[in-house]
Amino acid sequence: MSFYGIVDGSEGSLKNFLSQLPGVDQVGAEARAAMLATRSIKTTSKRWAIDTAISMVDLTTLEGADTPGKVRALCTKAVRPDPTDLTIPSVGAVCVYNDMVSIARTHLDAIGGKHVPVAAVSTAFPSGRASMEVKIQDTQDAIDAGAAEIDMVIDRGAFLSGKFGLVFDEIVKIREVCGDRAHLKVIFETGELVTYDNVRKASYLAMLAGADFIKTSTGKVAPAATPPVVLVMLEAVRDFYAMTNRRIGVKPAGGIRNTKDAIKQLVLVNETAGPEWLTPEFFRIGASALLNDLLMQRMKMDDGYYASPNYVTID
């Protein structure tokens, strides 16, 4: 089987392709990311930027202490981030553990949130340490419960050992389970991949295997969504689109906590991949605390002062 006419999925073919990728200029990537971080958005565009960022948030709760009540409250906030201002868009998705998917989907449907998808972290999240049979069942359970998006983790040990075929095959199999029922986001855990070259290789490996999105991190390991890492991933999806005419999304997750950070991400997207990626269809931000800061900054634009955190719900 040929994947985009680029690789046949064999270990040798994958290694040959990945070895020919140009190395990442670490100094250059970090300098460009730092330069783009200094860009500002005009005041007249700031509301657009805030609302765009809100629409891209995958509102997330991934704690062992999660309860049905907490997930329902999160879903309510996802649909109407501020009940007093119905001009604010809903978020991009609600992201939860598998056992909370049905609760989230049922509540979203009941409150007029059918348009908000539920994303499930799957395949033995966050470690990825499980048999393929378990990973497949984990994914199938999430989809059957109502998940429209699957956030899978790659086997970082296999990747770092050079077993690219194993990682590739796992992604292909999970993509097959998703079929046309769910989009697949592939998580690299970039803090464990160590180098930008590895991030670039993982990006191409996942895209060739059928990922709809590539995602930086689980949020459980630091560093996570650093600007240079996101830059490298955005360059990868841009160049992959030029090669295949298939547009892949990017999801940074972990460490993006305030409006300033979110706007930096939008600048990175626009200046690296292009404005076509400035949509929830192709860019998401995995976060929990970020939404509150975006809401408070939006209030400040209306009222002229920064509201107390008491004006937004505690997640």
Describe this structure in words.
It is a single chain. By secondary structure, the protein is of the alpha/beta class. The chain has a domain at 11-52 and 119-287: Aldolase class I (TIM Barrel), CATH 3.20.20. The chain contains 13 helices and 8 strands. It has helices at residues 11-19, 26-36, 43-56, 68-79, 101-110, 132-144, 156-160, 164-178, 190-193, 196-209, 227-244, 259-272, 290-303, and strands at residues 57-60, 93-97, 118-122, 149-153, 183-187, 213-215, 249-251, 285-287. Strands 7-6-5-4-3-2-1-8 form an 8-stranded parallel beta sheet. Strand 2, helix 5 and strand 3 (118-122) form a beta-alpha-beta unit. Helix 2 (26-36) crosses helix 11. The relative contact order is 0.14.
Short key terms for the protein model shown above:
alpha/beta; 315 residues; 49% helix; single chain; 8 strands; TIM Barrel
Biggest sheet overview: 8 strands, parallel
Cα distance spanning the termini: 46 Å
Low-confidence stretches: none
Q: What would you call the structural class? A: alpha/beta
What is the strand and helix layout of this fold?
Layout: H1 11-19, H2 26-36, H3 43-56, E1 57-60, H4 68-79, E2 93-97, H5 101-110, E3 118-122, H6 132-144, E4 149-153, H7 156-160, H8 164-178, E5 183-187, H9 190-193, H10 196-209, E6 213-215, H11 227-244, E7 249-251, H12 259-272, E8 285-287, H13 290-303
